[in-house]
Amino acid sequence: GASKNLNLMEWDKLWTINKKIVDPICGRHTAVLKEKCVLLTLANGPEEPFVRILPRHKKYEGAGKKATTFANRIWLEYADASVISVGEEVTLMDWGNAIIREIKTDNGTITQLVGELHLEGSVKMTKLKLTWLSDIEDLVSLSLVDFDYLINKKKLEEDEDFLDNLNPCTRREALALGDPNMRNVKKGEVIQLERKGYYRCDVPFVRSSKPIVLFAIPDGRQKSTLIVTGA
Q1: pLDDT-wise least confident of 54-58, 128-132, 145-149, 209-213
Q2: Residue 191: CA atoms inside 13 Å, Cβ hemisphere, count?
Q3: Which option is the CATH number for 11-217: 3.30.1330.60, 3.40.50.300, 3.30.2310.20, 2.40.240.10?
Q4: Where do the structural domains in the chain lie, given as residue ranges?
Q5: Which pTM does this prediction carry?
Q6: Phi, psi of 56 (to 5 degrees)
Q7: Which of 33, 24, 156, 42 is nearest to 92 (CA)?
Q8: Which of 22, 36, 164, 176 lies in the 20 to 30 Å Cα band around 75?
């Protein structure tokens, strides 16, 4: 009769296949982590905020449109602000270039950036491409949830007890600000947060005081584990 083989398959292969399915069609949105986020003031930015209608996916019209607000005060993530130098030209995604003129700190912590738009600058010449959100009241609160593997080893040996190899932390959560268009994201919908990855909406927008809950979807680049299958 047919023989039985034990195959070990990496989860990453499945996540990579899944990415190829969702990436061509899922809408793009922007989020900035709340923790120590930094305000960038653009000295020559628009006196009054204005809105542009942009595609949610630049290569797939079926994803629909989104309204993006442009203002002279925008939020950046602290991790991005911490690698910017005075005088450096950076690219604000979906807007253009800006030059950072001043970095304000308090006891070594960056508290504010001051710069100016340089929209005629080439995005090909900048090292940093930054996601950002205008400082407006319509931003939504997000809870970004990331799940890790239950077992912290790639493969358990026959004499090992899985209880001795349980991952002590399998759920991590981070609070973030999201663009106002995310009010329309439906439960179960898959989206991409620019420069962060893919997420599935677990709890959609209900009211401003309650965050939208998004579950992270691995894309095949994370630390791999194995699926055990019989063949």
Answers
A1: 145-149
A2: 30
A3: 2.40.240.10
A4: 11-217
A5: 0.88
A6: -70, -20
A7: 42
A8: 22
